[in-house]
Amino acid sequence: MEQNQDVLKRFLSQTATDSADTWLENFRVLEKVSVEHFNDYRSTPKDGSVRRGIILDVETTGRTSKDESVIQLALIEFFFHDDGIKSLGEFDSALHDPGVPIEPRATNVHGLNGGDIKGKSINPADIKDFIDRQKVDVVIAHNASFDRPLVEREFWGAGLNTLPWACSMRDVDWNARGKPEKLELLAHSMGYWYGAHDALDDVIATAYILTDKSADGRQAINELIRNSLKPKVIIRLDLQPVERLAIRTPLLG
């Protein structure tokens, strides 16, 4: 996140002369997300009701999941309870060379190029080992309709296709909470910032936004779990061309 130097100078000048209440009217302070900070003020209950989830994110060779390939995968485990996320656990991030070029427009977003990933690979067995350390109750991605098809297709042996999934973008009604659904803007609205479009930073930021509390004090993770369990019906239409039919009219007379 590039800091505007003029704004920074005005901020430092005002904080030196005005009270905190005054300068907070003109500036917004954002704190960088981190696993250490997240866990500083949360603790995991010791009873057996704690559940484990995985947050996942990918960076790709392009901008659509249909024809693109994964070049970075990040995973982080989190532990949650009926009253919300309690702590973050182990995390991992790895680069992968799918053998196809990275589109320039994708590099402009995540900053990765062919040289960064050359010769590197992700073994589905390593993903499975990370996941299988303990029972997984849910796998979450921000815009899971993009990430899920990619990882299930490219890392089939990891077993991600056998786990329950949820989407932190679609399974939470952010509009009802008065917030945008884009991850970076969500983090900003809660007072945090991160190095956007790096898969590891994205999964940490996703954990933060899922701690957002609604008017009744419940975290977004609770709404996500509830909505992800609702039955969903997918209707697929197999459209076939309709041949023109010759209509015969009776002869008159």
TrEMBL record:
Keyword match Kinase: no
GO molecular function: 3'-5' exonuclease activity; nucleic acid binding
Record's keyword annotation contains NADP: no
Stored Gene3D superfamilies: Ribonuclease H-like superfamily/Ribonuclease H
Domain Exonuclease: 52-219
GO biological process terms held by the UniProt record: DNA metabolic process
Keywords from the UniProt entry: Exonuclease, Hydrolase, Nuclease
CDD domains in the cross-refs: DEDDh (cd06127)
Record InterPro entries: Ribonucl_H, RNaseH-like_sf, RNaseH_sf
Pfam families (UniProt xref): RNase_T
A GO cellular component entry from the record: cytosol
Protein name as catalogued: DNA polymerase III, epsilon subunit
